[in-house]
Every structure is written in C-alpha cells, then in structure tokens.
Amino acid sequence: MLSKTIQEALNKQVKIEAQSSQVYLAMASWAEIQPGIDNITAFFYRHSDEERMHMLKLIHFINERGGFAVIPQLEAPTLTFPSIKHAFKELLEHEMMVSESINNLVDIALQEKDYASYNFLQWYVAEQIEEEALARTLNDKLELIGDDKGGMYLFDKDILTVSVGGGE
Ligand code: FEO
Q: pLDDT (tens digit, 9 = 90+) per residue, 131-159?
C-alpha cells in the first residue's frame, strides 16, 4: 500500500510525464510543417510516444499498489520555435527538469521507507541518464552545425539511427 506522501509524489510525476509527451507532441507538429526535416519530425513523435509510455507505467504502478492514479490537467506547451536548435534546447532543459523531479521522488521513497517504489523508480533513474545524454549530444551537434544547411541535412539523416529509449 502506498503512503499518501508517496502517492501524491508519484501522481505529480504522472503529470510531468504527461506534460513531457505533450511538449514533444507540439514539437513534432511544428517540425512536421517545416520543410526537409522528416526524420526530426519522426524523432519528436516517437519521443512523445515514449513519454506517454513512461506515464502509463507510473499509472499502472500506482493503481496496482492500492493507490489511485489521477489523470492530470496539462499546461499548454510551446507551439512554435524560432529554429530547430531552439526546440532541441527546450528538449534538453525539459529533460533536466524531469531528472530533478525523478531524483526528488527517489528521495521521498527512501524517506518513506518505500523500497518497492524505490526499486520501481530505478528504471526512471537509468532512463533519465540516457535521455539527458542523448539530448546533450544532439544539442552539441546542432551547435557545431550552426547555420550550415548541409549540416542540417546530415543531422536529419543521422537522427534516424538514434534510439529515444524508454523500452521495457
Ligand atoms: Fe520521461 Fe523524458 O522523461
């Protein structure tokens, strides 16, 4: 059985994962109407799906442990971006916020001596290491590319090979 404190904290994370899915879905929709970046578009859509999976995993965990997962109201995401670089910068900042939130959650699980939740959350800890590293790599590449159109063409090709993570 989940304590009230851990249940509230897990539900807060449900909202963060749902919000992440929404944020990347907005990036995908924006990218889809930009010319020549089909794979970047697919990357954002895929990332949005992964975040929904992160959210569902939490929902099932809360409900299976005798709690109640609350489906949250979301905030409006950023809809348009001055450039592809800006979108990826926002993605990195968003992932850093998610990592901080996961770390806090792990802290709460320990304080509550809820070792089942602590154990469950390790998957998210590992996932955040991967996601942050990927976001940083993509930002570094975009920094190198600058305004070079050929570079952006290659970046779009390259991103096809990238795994967003989030698998079971
Ligand atoms: Fe579910 Fe990208 O954090």
A: 999 999 999 999 999 989 999 999 999 99
For residue 125, which of 110, 141, 140, 112 has the smallest C-alpha distance?
110
Tell me the CA–centroid distance for residue 128 and ligand 1, in Å.
7
Q: Which residues have any ligand 1 atom within 6 Å of their CB?
A: 17, 20, 51, 54, 95, 98, 131
CATH of domain 4-161: 1.20.1260.10
pLDDT digits (tens, 9 = 90+) for 107-132: 999 999 999 999 999 999 999 999 99
- The answer to whether the pTM exceeds 0.90 is yes
Q: Where are the domains of the chain?
A: 4-161
